Amino acid sequence: MRSRQKTFCMILALSLLSLVGSACAPGSEQKEKGPKIIAVTTLFPLYDFAKHVGGDRVEVTLQLPPGMEPHSFEPRPSDIIKLNRADLFIYTSFAMEPWAEALLKGLQSRDLVIVNSSRGIPAMKPSEEKDNRHAQNRHLDAADPHIWLDFSSAVKMIENIRDGFITKDPGSKETYEQNAAAYITKLKSLDERFQQGLRGCRKNIIVNGGHFAFAYMAKRYGFRYVSVYGVSPNAEPTAADLAGAMKLIRDNGLHHIFHEALLKPRVAEALSREAGVALLKLDPAGNLTKNDFDRGETFLSLMEKNLDQLKEGLQCR
What we know:
Elements: H1 2-24, H2 29-33, E1 37-41, H3 44-54, E2 58-62, H4 77-84, E3 88-91, H5 98-105, E4 113-116, H6 126-129, H7 151-168, H8 173-197, E5 205-208, H9 215-221, E6 224-227, H10 239-251, E7 256-259, H11 266-275, E8 278-281, H12 290-295, H13 299-313
Parallel strand pairs: 1-2, 1-3, 3-4, 5-6, 7-8
């Protein structure tokens, strides 16, 4: 027993010495800069935006595990614990992440800054979506919430995130403003590449064998978009949806059908075989596959790949 007590005391003493040594070390970065701001983000675009805006001042975590489809995520007790320790919580909207609303109800943190990144972004009207619905234009029970796929809306999301960081950490206001401005410049350049790259295309419609996620992108860049699923990727397309998609492919002389990164492409593959067309991937970027996350893919790099795929599918010059 005495031997155990002696060992415990030695470990405790060494631990205390280590802590004191770290705290007193000259030039300590934490001492100079203070603790980092901790931000929890719901979806991958917000995670990437927050990292660019916050820079070295923030520690950003992504709530969704890599590979998880955003619409089917269910928060775990550990997510609530993590959120109660955070400084900021950044989400898109309760339409996109209905589970975020339930998560916020379990909060105990009194000084958490909550950032609704869609604030100030007008929702697309039903009349603007009528030609970009799923194959038979059946009634959708919700609008497309993937607002970041219109890069002008993504700029506003960046500004909302910037303002959230400034609210929490006003002493670093200039840093956040400079970082946000630099990233907005990149987004505007990306927007221009899409505008130019998708001009003069031979086709003006794409068919997606996934869920209804690209209405904002289609509206921004002037092409028609049809999906075989509704807003929810868990819904099953009907025989009429599939027949409608086949008719669109044949009537428009399309050579491709699109599928999404995080959904099994069984419907797209079946349509591809039946219509004799090739498959192309279009990424809504709500989350990353584990491989993409480990490779360090960014929102901008995913969108560049989307541009290449759209140019091929729309037969652009």
